[in-house]
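Follow-up to my earlier ticket, as requested here are the two runs.
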Amino acid sequence: MGILERRIRERQRRVEEILEGAKRIFSTKGFTNTTMNDIADSSELSRRTVYLYFNSKEQVSLAITAAALKELSQIFGRIAKEEGTAFERLGHIIEAYQDMMAEDQAKFQFFVSFTENARSVPKDCEEFVSCEQSLLTIEHIIANLLQQGLAEGSLQFSEDPKYLAALLTFMVHSLAAASISYKGIFSNFDDTFITSLFTGSLQIIKQYVQPKQRQEP
């Protein structure tokens, strides 16, 4: 292994340690009450080391969001290439959202503060650019599926596919943010209930684009 490759791997390892530590402490103390010192302690790294990679907790949070969005875009890309109708593949994409939400809510909770954090970092920073690219990729994948479904008859809608894809993506991420933000406010909003709300909302979206079944005479 060359020196450059070793440095790249070391950087990736450090970044992963910081992000995992940040997810733990954000989940425990909340974003507002967390400091860079807290992130360093949770990551078992020095404050100086953390600042080598990130300038602020907003940038750390954005990096977590970027990783989640990149993972989603890769999963959706694989699903889009599967066999089946566009409606079936869109259903699999919704299931992928549900699975990630159920398995690791920490990834989704950073959508809550995404907009505010995005305003706090330079628009050319790596984390912001990554988020933007992944969102565009997700919208492109969904728009293509919508167009395919409209052509084959497995989907039915009147909006422009690109607009509808952007709208659906915005709605899903907003649902994730809203459902998580209620956690801890009301006693009945536990993890199971939050997941059920998110799942139910996705099913409504899915039904919106599905053609109505014809009644047999």
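Run two:
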Amino acid sequence: MTLPFPDLPDEALIHAMTERREEALQELHRRYARLLFALGRRMLHQHEDVESCVQDAFFNAWRHAGRFDPARASAKTWLVSIAHHRFLQELRDRPDTPLELEDWDAPTRSPDPTDRLMAQRAVDGLEPHHRELVELAYYRGFTHSELAILTGLPVGTVKSRLRSALDRMRAALTRAPGA
């Protein structure tokens, strides 16, 4: 029996991955690789590092599919979280050397413009104090403790503002277009 993987919901694909169905992983990759690549590109700036980390993220999802709990997060959120953690690890593992000017100016492949625009609109729609925390935490990789030091806010305030910002972004992303 062949499952019509393009028609299955994401959560069913993850369940199929627990049964070692490679087609399920391929379908999730087809659906979300561009999104993860766009996030990685914003965080890491170096194409080879982004490709490697996205591949690692899908490999980790494959290995740990049995840990997925749909009550805690959607499949998309789970995959983005895995990739985000991998990108942060890559940032932390890098030596503290500045990029050459050529690296900053090098032409890059464009990620999916729709995902990038939607994410940027959600970030841009935040109040400045929320936007700053989101950009520092998710694009620059600062921890809650580091953000507290950078902003002079208590760690609890940093955490609550980030949670509030993410809730607002989620609401903005789930609203119907034109609503």
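The only thing I checked on run two: The first helix runs from residue 10 to 18. Let me know what else you need.
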